[in-house]
Amino acid sequence: MHNAETQLLKPGRVMPLGVEGAAPASFEIERVRRDPQGFVVKLRGVDDRDAAGSLNSMVWTDDRASFSRPGVGEFYHVDLVGAEAFDADGQLLGRITDVFSTPASDIITVALADCELLVPFVDEYIAGAGPEGRGVRLRNLDALRSPVEA
Fold first, then answer.
1. What is the DSSP letter of 144?
2. Domain at 77-145, CATH from 1.20.1070.10, 3.40.50.1970, 2.60.120.230, 2.30.30.240
3. For the chain, does the N or the C end have fewer beta carbons within 10 angstroms?
């Protein structure tokens, strides 16, 4: 979970949900509770599983101004996409094309000249990141490029 203390999910708040290329629909949050997997949100007017299922694949498309400013050393995933990736010596390697979460860690996808590299966002491979995700310094890349021995 990226922000367990978020104040964005609260009753009465309007959530714009939509699919890429279409205008979002607005849904008011009726109730919120936490469970071990994250937040469970009840939207006003979405009263059964079929109605909730119709919202699958929709994305929360909120205005950036509604999000809190990241703290020192923090950034939103969206800020990393398009950022430059450097080696530990400051040489440009490529650009970050995607960020996704797994149970073990967040993963950044870095487009290099000769391949695409999946890099766990952990201290072993991340030497540092600029403010608001501008630029990421990577280390130990040979370990990521080496074939796994059985």
1. H
2. 2.30.30.240
3. C
